Amino acid sequence: MFRFSKLIRNSRQVLARRKICTWLLAALMVACGTTAPAIGDVWYVDNENGQDTNSGRTQEIGAQAAGPFRTINRALAAAKLGDTIVLAKNESPYREVITFAGSDNSGFPGQPFRLIGNGAVLSGTQEILPGQWQSIGDGIYECRPADGAFQQLYLGARPASFQSLTQGTLSELQPLGWTLIDGRLYFRTEDGMLPNMYDLHYAAAQTGITLYLVRHVSIENLTIQGFWQDGINAHDNVRDTKVVGVTVRGNGRSGISVGGSSRLDVVSSLIGDNWHNQVRAEGVSHVRLLGSNVLANGHGEAKYQLDQGQITEEVPVVNAPIERRLQAVPVRQASPGSVLEPSATPTRSSRLFYDDAIYR
After folding, report:
1. What phi-psi label fits residue 91: left (phi over 0), alpha (psi between -120 and 50 degrees) or beta?
2. Which fold has domain 82-123+207-324?
3. What count of other Cβ atoms lies within 10 Å of the Cβ of residue 2?
4. What is the mean pLDDT of residues 205-216?
5. How far is 57 from 331, CA to CA, in rounded Å?
6. How far apart are CA 340 and CA 94, in angstroms?
């Protein structure tokens, strides 16, 4: 027993020394003006065909546990400095809350830690069961979600039409409309219909992606929707980090929130239909919008919320399909490259996507 405990302590000490050496190597390369060598591994995730007991090293399932992981969190736990995580795009969304934290989820200058979404969806919604609804008369039903500070009611794949009402004006709620009063969610059905005859979901998970104490991170080509607080939250001390070609929509408090001393670049992305604010910045944070489209179509038409933070639009919207502005999926490892196409024609009215990515 004593030898076993000693072996565990020695193993932990070796891992700690390796992590310190890796960071010292990165710091030395920055000081010398060089970039890190291409040493990152690629981890594959498939939420329909993968298993978290697989190796995560291959896209295809094979012998001896070869194949992708099932969850993004499993890949984040396996990954280390400068790695890349590649998601399979499936019909069903990834229903997870994920966090990038510390050195293992960071990258090098010129070699970021990458999450490549391939157009997949990360969703925080949950089905409202028939027993959760209570009738208050005249086709209006109420339910109490897990969190009632901010919310979104989804009717099918999209948020339902929100109305700003009070208890005194609740009778004005329109069919298929919803409102939030004192932490309770209200929905009005059509004549002769019950709530369980609709595909209704509410925002059950808090935040889709949290970034904390990370550097050189790139999140690419992913849709984040249906979280009651934020789609993406750069909590604090996030530097040299960007989201590229993402769609952040249908979240409760905001699409993207940046706090503390964080710095975040939002590149060639689309942010809209978030209930309270689209982008918020607090503390001494700074959000740079580079070729990104932020729509004023939330509750109260509020685009930005500033609490001492800074939001700047530095590059106009780029009118080009997302596939032309992102790199192909790497075969082995991450590699640096440009994400904007200089020849594209900029326009402020562009919605960036040619599919049904925007709800209204």
Report:
1. alpha
2. Pectate Lyase C-like (2.160.20)
3. 6
4. 97
5. 11
6. 27
* Per-domain residue ranges of the chain: 1-34, 82-123+207-324, 125-203
pLDDT bracket for residue 326 (50, 70, 90): low
pLDDT at 335 over 90: no
Per-residue pLDDT, averaged over 271-287, amounts to 92
Whether residue 246 contacts residue 230, with contact meaning beta carbons closer than 8 Å, is answered with no
pLDDT band for 344, please (50, 70, 90 cuts): very low
Is the pLDDT assigned to residue 178 strictly greater than 80?
Answer: yes
CA dist 246 and 145 (Å) reads 27
- Token look-up 């500070």 returns 149
Helix (H) / strand (E) element for 242: namely strand 239-244
12 or 209, which is more confident?
209
pLDDT-derived band at 158, boundaries 50, 70, 90: confident
The whole-angstrom separation of Cα 215 and Cα 108 is 8
- pLDDT single digits (tens) 41-88: 999 999 999 999 999 999 999 888 899 999 999 999 999 999 999 999
CB 160 within 8 A of CB 187: yes
Place of tokens 């591994």: 41
* Residue 21 vs residue 97, higher pLDDT: 97
Both tokens of residue 71?
A: 């969850």
Residues composing the chain: 360
Give the count of beta carbons closer than 10 Å to the beta carbon of residue 146.
12
Residue 229 CA, chain-centre distance (Å), reads 12
Asked if residues 216 and 243 have their Cβ atoms less than 8 Å apart, the reply is no
Pairing of strands 293-294, 263-267: unpaired
How does DSSP assign 15-57, residue by residue? HHHHHHHHHHHHHHHHHHT-PPPS---EEEE-TTT--TTS-SS
DSSP 78: H
Q: Could you give the CA distance from residue 106 to residue 100 in angstroms, rounded to a whole number?
A: 8
Report which secondary-structure segment, H or E, holds 3. helix 2-32
CA 278 to chain centre: 13
